[in-house]
Write a structure and sequence with these properties.
There is one protein chain. Helices cover 93% and strands 0% of the residues. It is mainly alpha-helical and 29 residues long. The protein has one domain. The longest helix is centred in the middle third of the chain and has 27 residues. It is rod-shaped.
């Protein structure tokens, strides 16, 4: 159970990081 929650959390965190990088790239260009 704990591993499943950790897995979902890591996916959400990864998505958030990707969105942040995308926004930063938009601002710098």
């Amino acid at each position: 159970m704990y591993h499943q929650v950790k897995f979902v959390y890591s996916i959400q965190l990864g998505g958030l990081i990707c969105k942040t990088i995308h926004i930063l790239k938009k601002h710098t260009n």
